[in-house]
Amino acid sequence: MTEMPTVAVLGLGAMGHAFAGNLLKHGFPTRVWNRNPARAQGLPGALICDTPRQAAEGAGVAITMLPDGKITESVLAGADGALASLPKGAVIAQMGTIGVGPTMSLARTIHSTRPDIAFIDAPVSGTKGPAEQARIRILASGDHAAASAIEPVFSAIASNTHWLGKVGAGSRMKLVVNAWLIIMMQGVAEATRLAETLGFSTDEFWSVLEGGPLGSPYAKAKLDMIKNGRFDAQMALAWGVKDAGLALDVAKDIKMPALERIREVWAEAVEAGLGELDISAVYRRLGKNA
Fold it and tell me: In this structure, is residue 290 part of a structural domain?
């Protein structure tokens, strides 16, 4: 039986916290770090560390799940960064949605500073609930052969891993997936408002979708949030605005008018105080009194 690697989880937002929890459930020695140490609550058995450097000591795998490329590079390569203490042959899995350019910059930094470490670009498809249940999908890219230690880690936190090629492919596909998700969410919100205007409840709307090609589990989950008026963040609106921007930044010469307008609408919702709520809360912005 292969020995489980020690895993350092750097960043304990909703997703990173879920990753650490699932690793602990599977018996992985887990070291965690977060800018706010209070986020480590609810992770019995984890070693809570004061710095990324301390968390990475002796870790065969380090996972970063942080808001953007600048913060991620600082946590890895800055003062008290993890690169200084990771052992030879370790694997770094960058799992946040930080964009293509920052991902490639990070890969260059790691290669020039620690060429003995394997870097895997591995953003995920999924939100808080699926992450807690280890049902996310990982969009991985990089040197698969040099990162064999990552396989049992990915198996503990995800239902599926798609290997897509060289570093950067994972981040590119993540932007495609999130563009689809954002456009779909706006469609759900607008169609629900139209249904209500025409005299139908969310349950009646779903009843004609259920079992057919348009009745996706994602749409059902968002309709339930709208129906119940509960918008606890699975993916926060503020992050949706960020991710729409990242997708538009790499769109180059293609036109994406729907995504451009959605980003504007969602940014208005964030400015109105909805940024920490789930992206389904954009439904509120479509009401008469919004």
Answer: no
Three-state SS annotation for 97-164: CCCHHHHHHHHHHHHHHCCCCEEEECCEECCHHHHHCCCEEEEEEECCHHHCCHHHHHHHHEEEEEEC
Are residues 140 and 40 both part of a single domain? yes
- pTM for this prediction: 0.93
Residues 59, 160, single domain; the answer is: yes
Chunked into runs of 10 residues, the chain (290 residues) has average pLDDT values of 85 96 97 93 94 97 96 96 97 97 97 96 94 96 92 96 97 97 98 98 97 94 96 95 96 94 97 97 83
**What residue numbers bound the domain in which 249 lies?**
172-285
Both tokens assigned to 276: 């920490």
Domain count, the chain: 2
Residue 125 lies in a domain: yes
